[in-house]
Structure formats: C-alpha cells, structure tokens
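Q: Here's a chain of 230 amino acids. Please give me its 3D structure as tokens.
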Amino acid sequence: MKSKAASSPRKSLRARFVSSIYATHNNSRQVGLALGQCLSVLSSGSRGLVVGAGSTKLHPALINLDIACGETIDVCASAEHLPFPDEVFDLVLSQEVLEHVRDPFQAMCEMKRVLKKGGILYCQVPFIIGYHPGPTDFWRFTKEGVQELIQRAGLTCQELKVAVGPGTGFYRIFVEFLAVIAARLWRKLYIPVKGTCALFFYPLKWLDPILAGGPQCDRISGGYLAIARR
C-alpha cells in the first residue's frame, strides 16, 4: 500500500502541471483584466463571495465556498443553496463552476439573491472543453447561453466576452483526442500521453489573441466571462 506522504507530492506535482500547462483558462489576459476590475470594488468594509473556490485565494475580503472542504475553504455548501441571507455581498465570483452544477439557473439566482443592490457578479464558464468531472460535469455554455443565465436571474449584463479563444478550445479537444486514442491501445497510456501532448502542443494557445477577435471565434472558443450587476 502506498503511503499518503508518498502519493501527496505526486498529486501536488500533477495539480501544478494541470494548472500551469493544461488548464490555464483562469490565467488568460482577458480573465486577469476582468477579475482585477471586479476585485477593485472591494474597499474597506466590503465583502465578497467565491462560489466554487477550490484551492484559490484571490482576496482577503472574499469568503471561499465550495462543495468540498479544504484548507482554503471557509464554507462548505452547494452553489444551488447558498447559506447566506439576502443582499450581503458586494461581489460574487464564479470561475469554471456552473458546468459542474446540476441546475445552473438556480445557482445563478442564488448568487444574485446574496448580492447587494448595485453589487457585481463575475461569471466564467467553458464552451469547448472535454468532460472533466469535479465531481460531476453537466453543461457547456455558448455566448447566448451565458446571456440567458444572466437575464433569467434578473441581472444586468455589463460585459460578455471570450475568456479563452479558439486556440485554447482546439488545444483542449486535440490533446484529449490523442490521449483517448492512446488509452484505446492501453488504458494506462492515457495520463502520460495527455501530459506529453499538453506540453508539446501548448503553443496552440498562443493563437488566442489572433483568433479571439475574429468573426467566427464563437464557434470553438474555449469559454466566456461575464460581468453583471444587480
């Protein structure tokens, strides 16, 4: 039996590889600018909420909520049933979370409910990406889908744009495709082939700035971000 001490560094190394090479959607320039804009509203006395925080810690004034407990998590709860009273937060953030929620419309309504009047919601969702349970994986969102989520919740959309472009969209599917082929030959090849291809084809992501503003970029963009106000 492998000890926890032996497996933990391996998991940590894999997590770092995934976040720095394969799944870099939270590190794109568009995401950084939009998040910076939203976080700037957190002045002294302000409070914010991160729904589906994972291992992130974006700002001292943010409460981290996730369905799974962890070192960086302040509250364990579902996005569909937020354990807070109405209108308590100046800012609510959700990054790559709603695809994992059984009812994203309910989750969006809950995020709107806990926002103060005039408060800001930042929502980031994937479009072209492979199946990635965490612990489940239900949805993908087109540009119109994001608009529908926001409008049904009764929020006013201030900005909606590509978070990661067609280069990243193609990269994620192509790497997954090659790994799936390898796994068909031998199941244990999936992870090493995926890791190797993720590193080798990383430059495909560099096409995002060129393609993101094109007339057909919405066909295979990796995902979208939206800023809305209550």
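Q: Can you summarize the key feature?
A: Confidence is low (pLDDT under 50) at residues 1-6.
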